[in-house]
Amino acid sequence: MGLAEIKIPNDLLEELEKLSKETSKPKSFHIKRAIKAYLEEYYDLKIALARLQDKDDALITDEELKKSLGL
Fold it and tell me: Relative to the CA of 39, which of 4, 11, 46, 49 has its CA 20 to 30 Å away?
């Protein structure tokens, strides 16, 4: 496993320490989860933006979506 050194603002570090104590999980656990969630969101956004720019990708209205879901 690699090692990365980061600087965290004091207020954020305090929140992280509080979370670590409340959950009995190390700070590194929460940092890894936060980075993973951020990367997943980033790549989801990247895919969504690419699909919006794809002229061949069909779009449907919210009404069509609701109908297809039986709502």
Answer: 11
